Amino acid sequence: MKNSYSQILDDPRFQELVSKRNRLSWTLSALILIVYLAFIFLIAFAPQVLGTRISADSVITWGIPIGVGLILFAFILTGIYVRRANGEFDRLTKAILDEVQQ
Q1: What pLDDT was estimated at residue 2?
Q2: Tens-place pLDDT, residues 1-18
């Protein structure tokens, strides 16, 4: 008879869970890295874009909303991960554990 640990590792649903979670994590990480690097490259190679005023009579430059947008993008990606983790990933985990505990 297998122990619980071996049962979990051999379960195809566990392997699916690990695969989906890793794919999502790497995808979201790549997205934030690409957006962040684009922002850094914009600072390095075209700082005048970020220093341009939004309108002629405004004191706000494009750098502020773009920077805030980058922060909001990170929050959104975190929300996407949390939603999937608390939904699909938790359901798969519960199903696997319920089967092992029987």
Answers
A1: 66
A2: 467 788 888 888 999 999
The structure tokens listed for 102 are: 């029987």
Would 3 be classed as within a structural domain? no
| Residue 67 domain flag | yes
Residue 6 in any domain: the answer is no
- Cα angle 94-96-100, degrees, rounded to a multiple of 5: 115
Rounded Cα distance between 95 and 92, Å, is: 5
Q: What is the pTM of this model?
A: 0.82
Helices 12-45 and 90-101, packing angle to 10 deg: 150
How many domains are there within the chain?
1
